[in-house]
Each structure stands twice: as C-alpha cells, then as structure tokens.
Amino acid sequence: MKSERTSKLQVHLLFWILYYLLEAYLDFYWSRYQFPDFKWQIRLQNTLILELGYFLIKMPLAYSLLYVYEKVHLRIFFKYLLYVLIIIFAVLGHRLFTHYIIYPYIYEAIETLDGKQPSGFINGFVAFNSFMDLIFMVGLVFGVEITRQKNLLKDQISQLKSEKLDQELTMLKAQINPHFLFNTLNNIYGMALKKADETPDVILQLSKIMRYNIYEAAEKRISIEKDIENIKDFIQIQKIRHHHLTVNLTIDLDNPSQEISPLILIQFVENAFKHGVSESLGETFIHIDIQLRNGILTYFIENSKEEKANEHSTRIGLKNIRRQLELLYPKHLLSVEDQSDRYIVKLIIDFHGTPSR
C-alpha cells in the first residue's frame, strides 16, 4: 500500500511539473504579443507568478473531481450535479484571479476582449475561455490517473497469475515426491529385514535426493548439471533395487550452468521405472540421452515394458508432466510413443524462447 501511494505521488508530481512548464511557456510566448513593451525578464517573472496562482485553483479542482469520481457514491444525477457545481466554483475563482489580480496588479492593464473593448468580470466569452482552460487540465489529470490505475491493475493481475502458477506448480510437484519417498522407504524397510548389504548405500542415496527435493527444488531454477546429478542418484537407488536392469545414461552438455526448472526431467525417469521396469518380470532396460546444444535441450528416454502394462496410471503421470511443461516452457515439444514392448519419450526445450518467471 505504501509503495502504491509513493508511485501515485511520483506520477502526479511529474505531471504537475511538466504541466506547469508547458503553461508557463505558452503564457510567456503569448505575452510577447499582448505586452510587447515589457522586458522579457518582467514577462517571465509575471508568467511564473500567475501560473502559480492558477495552480491554486486548478489543483483543488482536479483532486476534488477525482475524489468525487473515486470515493463519493451517489446516484448518477446527483454525482453529475456535484461535478457541475465544483466546476462552476472553479470557473468563478479563475475569473476572479484573472480579472481582479492578474490584469490590474501583474500586467497593470485592463482586461479587454479584442484589445479595445474592456471585459467585464464575467460574460459568455471569457467564462468559456476559463472553462476550457480548466477542463483541459482536468482531462489531462484524469487521463494520467486512469492510465496509472490501469497499469497498476495490470501489474496486480500479472502478479496474481504468477502466484497462481507457482501454487499450481508446487501442487503438481508435491503429487510426485511423496510417492517416490514412500515407495523407497518401503523398499529400505524390506532390505533392512533381509539385512541386505546395500541398505546403507540406498539410505545415503535417498538422503541426497531428499536434500535436493527440500532445498534445491525449492528454487524456481537451478543449473541443469545439478538436476542431472539428482537423476543419477535416483538411478543408483533403482539399480540397487532392480538387479536385472540395464541403464544407459548419455550426457552431452555444452553449458552445464544452463538453468532449468527442478524436478522436470526426473519425472520421465520416474515414469520409466514405475510403468516400465517395475511392471516387467524379465530383463529390462532404460536408455537416457541428454544433450544441450546452443540453448536447446534434447531429452530422450526409451524403456522396456510389459505388453499388458497399466496404461491408466501412465496417462495420469504424463498429464501431470504435460501441465508443468505448459506452465514453464510453452514452446516445448514433447512426443510419447507407446509401442507394444517399450515407451519412447522425446522432449525438446528451447531455452531462448522461455519466458522469465
């Protein structure tokens, strides 16, 4: 709220400075022809003084109308009536200042209509001139304020959308991490009952993965090198569990520090184990190829599966991954081939076309 007030003050202060300079320039230029005998220094001094006087009329008028527009809740007829009354009082003030102060005390002359015929305090012509001068200023102030409010609303909507996407991404990630944790803890429990020698190694790998999920994955972006390291730890746990598994992992990165959203790539590896290896009874394989060239990531995974695999759970996992990719990388390309004996996934992400979030 404080920053909004500061922003409003800065915008309006800048407007009034620019408006004062514009009006002072126009009046100074006009005085060359109206009072040619005055020296330019005198004309400049007179111009600066009279514009300050006009500001004492124009600023209260502008902010009174803004206050009625934003804060006063009346029937439309009474609201417009209030506008008219405020403007009438402002026109009268403008005429009083012009006729009784500016001309006799600043210009030391009598206000005239055509250079000859004296002008009264108020008549149709001079009242219209005062009205147009004031209404032009009011239009500018309203234009500045409405534009500022629209930009503020646009920023707020953009922030809300960003927060909503962040919340959705957090929920999508949370749907995956607990499943892996509980499954791995169950397996460690089974290995501990059997007093398997690999139990300490699995616990160590799980500790590294959970540390990554809790601390590293909380960031919006991390280096792809760190993300791949987490994939390696995950594969190590799975290889200890699945003795008849062949995993080929090929990595080729020309920029290991390239940033990527955490936990995106590993979800495809999780699916390969969950819906391929875990459902297969015989020899199984997973081939993973990760290439990064000139800001373009090519991610390829191929894994074996049983001919009667549970396709329903596979579709649920892919739906989750697709939604995250839509939110994070709108220009990605993802293809999934479901063949009789294998799954083939290919993902391409162009980091040059990734919006900053």
UniProtKB/TrEMBL annotation:
Key words, A-Z: Kinase, Membrane, Transferase, Transmembrane, Transmembrane helix
GO molecular function: kinase activity
Domain Signal transduction histidine kinase internal region residues, every copy: 168-243
InterPro entries attached to this UniProt entry: Bact_2-comp_sensor_kinase, HATPase_C_sf, Sig_transdc_His_kin_internal
Transmembrane segments: 12-32, 52-69, 81-102, 122-144
The keyword Transmembrane belongs to this UniProt entry's keyword annotation: yes
Pfam families (alphabetical): His_kinase
Keyword Kinase: yes
Annotated protein name in UniProt: Histidine kinase
